[in-house]
């Protein structure tokens, strides 16, 4: 499965006639890379269900692949460059259809609702101006789209994350997007670059990027399940891992495993941070392909 996705993303960006299909494949590859990454604290990965009883790695991969047409449709909407309001409402409708597609594929389990929102905005923004794929630029365009009001969106969805925003006065996924994804461009991606620069493995670099987000994000997935105390304990634990050298250091790995055990005990999972890591991996892939010699 991973090999097939890699083959789909091997051709130059600027000259590919199937740009929207390629962008959709890049999103799915980022989602699969995120869920495969291990060991993640409290989250589903290739070795563990984390703090979940209804999710596992296989189901998450099934969901990601089922959503590829959704992300392709969103990218196509971006390429067609409709006026901003029409674009926002078009991708909103595509996203709601994507949620239905996800739930059909997973038997009613919410696997990627947050990712549809975050990655959907980013893939639309990328396709809107495919010659400017710098992460900050793509995230800023995504923020501009997110700030437009979708007149057809339900006023109240009943989602747990939405309720957590109301209960604890935090911005949640909507606030993160409308601000231009600061935890992606100012936290996750810089940590990814720092870790790679000092020689960490790619797995360790990605884990460190995730931990940097966990340490600072008011994750509504955690707030909804465990409240502010669980969130504060998780953030302290993530900071401690990074202080001990991160996932590449022996002491850091031990602390990471301890944090994972504790989050499972608390039955909390930083799903918001996981979505933002997937967003960072998507933007990182875009940056890498845009800088490929064949795209110069």
Automatic annotation (TrEMBL):
The keyword Nucleotide-binding applies. Pfam families: CitG (PF01874). One of its GO terms (molecular function) is triphosphoribosyl-dephospho-CoA synthase activity. InterPro entries: CitG, TriPribosyl-deP-CoA_syn. Its EC number is 2.4.2.52. Belongs to the CitG/MdcB family. Involved in the formation of 2-(5''-phosphoribosyl)-3'-dephosphocoenzyme-A, the prosthetic group of the acyl-carrier protein of the malonate decarboxylase. This is Probable 2-(5''-triphosphoribosyl)-3'-dephosphocoenzyme-A synthase. The gene is mdcB.
